[in-house]
Amino acid sequence: MSTILEIERIQTYIGQYHILEGVSLKVPARGITVLLGRNGAGKTTTLRSILGLTPPREGRVLFEGKEIQGRRAFEVAALGIGYVPEHRAIFRNLSVAENLRIAERRPGDLERRAELIFGLFPDLKRLYKLPGDHLSGGQQQMLAVARALVADNKLLLIDEPSEGLAPILIEQLMEAIRQLAATTTVLLVEQNFIMASRLSDTYYIIDDGRVAHQGAMKDLLADQELIHRYLGTAVRGTGRSRTKGGQRS
Amino acid sequence: MTRSFWKNNQAALIVAAVLIAFVWVGWSTMGQTTFVQTALSGLTLGSLYFMVASGLTLIFGLMHVLNFAHGTMFMIGAYAGWQFYTNPTFIFGLLPLAFALLAGLPAGTLLQPLVRKLQLPERWQKPLRWALILGAIAVGLAGVIGLDFRGLAATAMVAVTVGVDPLAEATAQEPLARFWLRPLLLALASLLLAVANQHPGSRQQMLRRHRRWPLSLALTGALASAVVASVFREAGALAVLRLDANWRFLLALVAGTAAGGALGAVVEATLVRPLYERHLYQVMVTLGLAFVLMELVQVLWDPLPYQMSRPPIFSQPGKAASLLAWFSEGSVTVNILGVTFPSYRLFIIVLGVLMFVLLAVLMKYSRLGIIIRAGVQDSEMVESLGINVRRVFTMVFVLGAGLAALGGIGAAPFIPVEPKMGDTFQVQAFITVVIGGFGSFTGAAIGALLLGLARAFGDFLALRFSLSPAISEASTVIIMAIVLLVRPSGLFGRRD
Questions:
Q1: Measured between CB atoms, does A181 come within 8 Å of chain B?
Q2: Residue-number span of the structural domain to which A110 is assigned
Q3: Buried-most residue among A82, A159, B179, B399 (CB within 10 A)?
Q4: A14 inside 8 A of chain B by CB
């Protein structure tokens, strides 16, 4: 299996805080790789370091074999990496159509991908003209994922898509991400272990800024002790009940 | 549905209600003539406030930069336009140097592959960089030494104060045989700066690869422009002076805007860009820049107020019976709803409205507009989509500075052109932006309208009841206080 993204011992600081202390991981092309771990373990920072939003001070990031650390985020993204940040960071003062349109890298991207996007999220077609802040939390999350699909991305970084969503919406989102993984690669950060375990093939557990464990998901599922040790607080039956969605930036 | 309509457009509806009530009260108590007269004055002021405030609000909303040099852009625009209109000798004399400076930058970037070959131990990298920067400054100074800036600047001054024929004054330029070295040296200086900016000798230097042909094109263009501008320094100025004064005024509007935009580009690239995320420094740097530019202008043109004459189409004696009649007569005043009103002020109102419509269309429909609106909310996410946000920042800064400069040259024919002319406009523009909500373009327009009217009607009240004229100045601050009490983030500001 070929590797699309490789991270070698990256050290990332935010201000004076040492967040990532030598994280290394390999993301195989096609399929879903999940980053697990407690709150504050460094999962989001790992995604942001890949993209260059919090550039690592040391270590290498290789995308399709090329070093990309130290490049500006827009250049990294333009190589074919889509980002779905946590808290469904859509542009609330833009309409759904504009939210999608802005993600075009070449003219006509949206038309080319419209079938895929509206196939996965038929609701968006109905909401096309509405401003982003009129959408429910779930619809905003759909839009955030859809936005990452407009350009021709080879790798999608998706950060906690299930956060604050109702169970039925989580099911729909899971289905969409599973379909995506057939044609592209997904690196997923997920607190909802049930969702993560049903989606992904490979897992990495990040703890205190290091990779504590890694392997195939089916092995992890058999190891209750490991799950309990690292993810104890994170195991949950379904997603959290929906809080007041969509108001956070 | 009706509830949500009310909620979404609360601010706009309240403003509309206030304005309608205001018009009704004003019309019935002041009488038609006085009311229309005062309202038009207010609209003129509002137009100018809008041109300064719209750039300010966009720059702050997108980049979180409080640009305290924005009023200075207004002033620079006024000076550039006034120079161009009265006697463009100064502008044409310096144009080749500007093009030469511009040419050095792509040339430096083209040298990048060569520079990258150089590998030096770390302790030599910093000294080399500083040597290059100091060398650039030295070469640049050598390029302008002995150039009679004040003499060039004086041509328009003389034309204004003595009233001599500007054509007689237009030709005094240094002979080309001596001049040609200057653009060459300045191009070399900016090339050295561009190389210094690549951190030569370092392995960690910027890895960005540039496509060569756009750079070569830019280099060729700038070089050719520098040569052409050097040769036609005198002929260009003469040609402009021989032009019909109305066309010259139109060109002066363009020249003033371009001067402001160019200044904005330089300021953004050299002073603001290294200081993103350091807001206090930006305030100090832009404030310092405002003082420096003001002093520079005083050195060149003395701290005197100048009156720029109006183009003929706004200055023929007489009074046009209607707008249509004005087109053929070009008279100094026009009859509007039974009120005699200066035609030039109407032009300012039209210019302001035109700018608003153009900007509104740009913001609503163009890709740049969508990116700007998205960036006001979350510029990091915009960058994550693969968009070079820094370049958009530069464009917005240039756009804002250009708009302020356009306001300046627009205002020049009816307020004195002096170094401090931008100060009051900057203060009013800040108040406008606070009323409208930081980052909101519509807010800036509405705020400017409110402030303009408040100033005009404040002046009227002060005159009528023999109050202190300070009341009209205070009125804008009072409006700001009321708006902030009701909506702490401004009329159209976001509430998070």
A1: no
A2: 88-153
A3: A82
A4: no
ipTM of the complex, rounded to two decimals: 0.87
Does residue B379 carry a pLDDT above 60?
Answer: yes
Q: Are A75 and A160 found together in one domain?
A: yes
Q: Tell me if B384 and A151 make a contact (CB, 8 A cut-off).
A: no
Whether the per-residue pLDDT at B100 is higher than 90: the answer is yes
The confidence score (pLDDT) of residue B166 equals: 58
Instruction: Report yes or no on A172 lying in a domain.
Output: no
pTM for the predicted model, two decimal places: 0.88
Do A142 and A114 share a domain, yes or no?
Answer: yes
The answer to whether the beta carbons of residues A149 and A116 sit under 8 Å apart is yes
In chain A, the residue whose alpha carbon lies closest to the alpha carbon of B391 is A74
CB-nearest partner of B496 from A77, A91, A249: A249
Residue B184 has pLDDT above 60, yes or no: yes
| Backbone φ and ψ of A106, nearest 5° | -125, 150
The runs of H, that is alpha helices, within A93-192 are: 96-101, 109-120, 123-126, 137-150, 167-181
* Partners of residue B278 in chain A, C-beta under 8 Å: none
* Residue B277 pLDDT greater than 90, yes or no: no
Tokens standing for B194?
A: 């561009």
Do residues B419 and B78 lie in contact, with contact meaning Cβ atoms separated by under 8 Å? no
Task: Tell me if A101 and B367 make a contact (CB, 8 A cut-off).
Answer: yes
How far apart CA B425 and CA B423 sit, in angstroms, is: 5
Total residues found in chain A within this entry: 249
pLDDT in tens, B46-88: 999 999 999 999 999 888 888 999 999 999 999 999 999 988 8
- Among the three residues A153, A176, A194, which one is the final residue of a domain in this structure? A153
Residue B349 has pLDDT above 70, yes or no: yes
Asked if the Cβ–Cβ distance from A101 to B370 is below 8 Å, we say yes
Judgement on whether residues A149 and A114 belong to the same structural domain of the protein? yes
CATH number at A35 reads 3.40.50.300
Can you say whether the dihedral through the CA atoms of A198, A200, A204, A207 is positive or negative? negative
| Residue whose entry in the numeric block shows the structure tokens 């202008």 | B297
Token reading at A57: 């001070």
